[in-house]
Amino acid sequence: MENKTRVRFAPSPTGELHVGNARTALFNWMFARHEGGRFILRIEDTDESRSDSAYQTSLLEDLKWLGLTWDEGPDIGGDYGPYRQSERLDLYEAHLKKLVDADLVYPCYCTEDELEEERQTLILAKRMPRYLGKCRNLGAGEREALAASGRKPSYRFKVPQTTIEFHDLIRGPMRFEGEAMGDFIIVRSNGMPAYNFAVVIDDHRMSVTHVIRGEDHLSNTALQIMLYRAFGFEEPTFAHHCLILGRDHAKLGKRHGSVSVGEFRRQGFLPEALVNYLGLLGSSFAGGREILSRDEMIEAFSLSRASKSGAVFDEDKLRWLNAAYIRNAATDNLLRRLEPFLRAAGYRPETLDTAWLTNVLETVKGELTTLAEIGDHIDLFFDERYSLSKEAERLLASPGAREVIGAFDEYLQRGEGDPGDIYAAAIRHAKEKSGVRGRDLFMPVRAALTGKLKGPELDRIFVALGVDSVRKRLAQVKKTLSI
Ligand code: GLU
């Protein structure tokens, strides 16, 4: 029988998917997969001024790209839909009516300006800003008069003066004093439900069993629990994970650099690397393991291993993981993923011989940190892009280097057969003839063959270039150096 565990990821389509939210999605996804439960995607788009359908599309794309597949959601439906809050407005209205009838809410006619004034007064008096309940005790006549003046009311929940306690699966026992909280808005004056209201109705109606989200929602949880109790709904279990921080320990934001999944995708990070990194961040796996497949992460996932204190985003570590995933990727698979990056770098992959390109990729993939770097690593294999860098030219100018190049070329003029054998024999010949060895022998050859001082293994480069191309390059070098 299917496990009853149901979790959800509930993004608001107000921007590109932030890595912090992607991590929340990942935690929920891993939890659902570990438990054999269901992972639900719900779009929280009731803030019309900030929501954008383009972001909704990109959120779904980014989640798919990360491989965090959902079992119910706006695109695939499910038994608990609709999965977009903007399509659930009737439901919120009906629930508002329940609270109105039970006298647990009241209309508030305060304007933005009035609320702001109250806020400023409280701040000046060094008191916590909150709504002091001006409209709570209005008489029917006063309400009518305000309504007649054209003011549209919002609806506020009457916060009970009790202590809210709950057990958080990551943070342990939590406690919030109702006294410290003002009556909060559940339906705005434009008729749209506020986040805390809609989320409770949806989580209840969608039979969500565990709410896993960032610790920035902790105080919202206290308000939501009040609503669960007001409706008589069973509360889900809550788990609030730590947030991702920048190096300065402030919440990770744009000023720290790349923060959205889309940015990392466009820079050529692999989804496996990003998912692995986000799963590792603020969590630990047995034996200090760092590279884990999805299945291994699901298997090892436990909320009890999630850390309570913030996790610093370490881009170097992500780069290290990305390089490892690129290095270990099957070359044909990598080739497919590299296509857009090759195009962006000015190459036309369809014009290249697949076997040759595969060989080139085999040769350079160990050098890549991101896919976007591919252009800088394969240019040396294209004769039309070949040129000597300044450093290469300087290195080749020494008498020892000139001698090495002369001898290496001499062998190539007559060498025939398998390119790998020719390379080995040419190196041997250059070594014997010039008396130069080690670095002083290989660096000039590298500089002449690639125009650069760094790169993959020379023997592999030689084979990928082919003898003709090497001969041409040596001729060019000899001309430049007047050898
Ligand atoms: N839409 C909310 C957000 O993006 C969802 C928070 C929650 O998981 O309840 O922050």
What would you say this structure looks like, in words?
- The chain has 483 residues and is mainly α.
- The chain is elongated and about 105 Å long.
- It has four domains: 6-85 and 245-312, 3-Layer(aba) Sandwich (Rossmann fold), CATH 3.40.50; 88-241, Rossmann fold, CATH 3.40.50.620; 329-383; 386-481, Orthogonal Bundle (Arc Repressor Mutant, subunit A).
- The protein has helices at 19-35, 53-66, 89-101, 112-124, 140-148, 195-205, 218-231, 261-266, 271-280, 294-300, 315-328, 331-344, 354-364, 374-378, 390-396, 399-414, 419-434, 439-450, 458-465, 467-481; strands at 6-9, 38-41, 105-108, 154-157, 163-168, 172-177, 185-187, 210-214, 237-241, 244-245, 311-312.
- A three-stranded antiparallel beta sheet has the order 3-4-7.
- Helix content is 48%, strand content 9%.
- Helix 9 (271-280) crosses helix 11, helix 15 packs across helix 18 and helix 17 (419-434) crosses helix 19.
- Strand 5 (163-168) and strand 6 form a beta hairpin.
- The protein is built from 20 helices and eleven strands.
- The site of glutamic acid has 7 residues, from loops.
